[in-house]
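Shipment paperwork, digital attachment
Item: protein structure file
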Amino acid sequence: MSAIALLVVGVFAFLTGYQVYSRYISRRIYRLDPDFVTPAHEFEDGVDYLPTNRHVLFGHHFTSVAGAAPIVGPAIAVIWGWLPAFLWVVLGTVFAGAVHDFGALWISTRHKGNSIGTLTEQIVGARARVLFLLIIFFLLLLVNAVFAVVIANLFVANPGAVLPVWGSLVVAVIVGLLIYRTGVGILWPSLAALAILYLLIWLGQYVPFALPDVFGFAPSAAQIETAGGDLAAAQAAARTDGLRAGWVIILFVYAFFASVLPIWLLLQPRDYVNSHQLFVAFGIIFLGVLVVNPGVVAPAVNTALPADAPSWFPLLFITIACGAISGFHGLVASGTSAKQLNKETDARYVGYGGMVGEGMLALISIIATTAGFALVVGLDGWHAHYGSWASASSGATAAFVSGVGVLAEGIGIPRNVAVIFAAVVVISFAATTMDTGVRLQRYIISELGAQYNVKVAQNRWVATFVAIVACAVLALGLDRGAGGMRLWPLFGTTNQLTGAVTLLVITLFLIRLRRPIWVTAIPMAFLLFMTTWAMVLNLARYYTDSQAVLLAVGGAIFVLELWLVLEAVGALHRALAVRRGERRESGASSNV
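Attachment content:
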């Protein structure tokens, strides 16, 4: 199988979905109104509510949702073969994920920029709102913990990426000040920032940065056993634990300040610059595929799975957690993007278009890990890397970085620069997701504080502190961060569950508006079935493996899910009963 064929088919499907399917939804289902006064105008405050150019908002939304997940998920899922991953990414993006993101942005805009959790109270009921807010809290807890571990691992493995990643923050603040305080147009500052970023990537190879091992962890018994008694190897593994822990702490300190700063100062300009970076990355990788034309070495369907690998059905649909559909996207759409939407008609471009971009990123991950990575390690090396579920999970980002590096090298970029470039791409988008994730978690804590009249929880500094401490404890609590990727199945399940409930809320709203519901109801039902099944399998495995923390968190989420679904089913039954009653009354009136 040629990588070019996968690329062409995937891109064609995404563009067709945007040009055809999203137009149908915007005209016939959501019925966007260009004259509707959006919350950004109604409640403009310069901090959270801010009418924003649709291209700038696309950059913020796209990079906030396009974190590490659409890279990591497909990079793990190809263990089952490239075909299941490819089909779920393409079909899921067009018919589920993009519909979900577009709908969450639209429904929040129609309800004064309220988050999807708050909307649940208005559409389902008061108890449902609290249940959904708790599920969202757990989801954000997992998102921030997982992404912190992913970024920390990449910093440890790629010290040349440290300078460009942290340097880009300074550049972003300068861009924000230029645009919003001096009135400079956005184009030239953003292009200059992009040029500086790539200069920093080039300099990164000469100025690598590694943290000192301030923790000095002793090797654990498991590390000594894994190293076969080799004390030096076990000590090296323990040193990696210390470096990872240091980066995790630094990342959460940064996330604390990033999440309380005005959105125009760091979040918007950084995301806008990163969106340009991602488009450049797309161009480099697409060109690399066309020039190198690597063969896809992974089997279409892997019939010789490792003993520790679970069945792809239903685990595929929660392993690829953001490359096809993601509940986290609905939180971003209703939590920050809806507060910046200039015109309601921009929702199609930002919401549906943003998810199409994420689908392309997932497609690149599939190609990089099934074709590009094999050029680095060879066919036998690829099979060895995917020789166990544990290896595939822990080495997902490494496979992607190596695969992208060899594709970039194929068009003349020096290999060491290409690897730093690939690492910066992953880190940048994971970090922007963390920025938004911590901000959203602060919103959730404040909403729960308002619900139960806990005034201290409504303070943004206190709420943010609680959020980052909880995330850091979870990130570091599993084998000093080394077990952080064990959170991935639980994160994926919770993420897809949140997406299903968001689609349910949108479906109920469409019923109230007496509009067709099949566009949202079909993916909603599919996701509810898959996530419930996957959660049961995950809980059984956590119980068997004596993973008490994961069992407790997963069990709490599962109980909240079942309770919330029951509340939603009752609301759905009531809404359909009202519609049937109106139809009967209408029929009786016509017979008079």
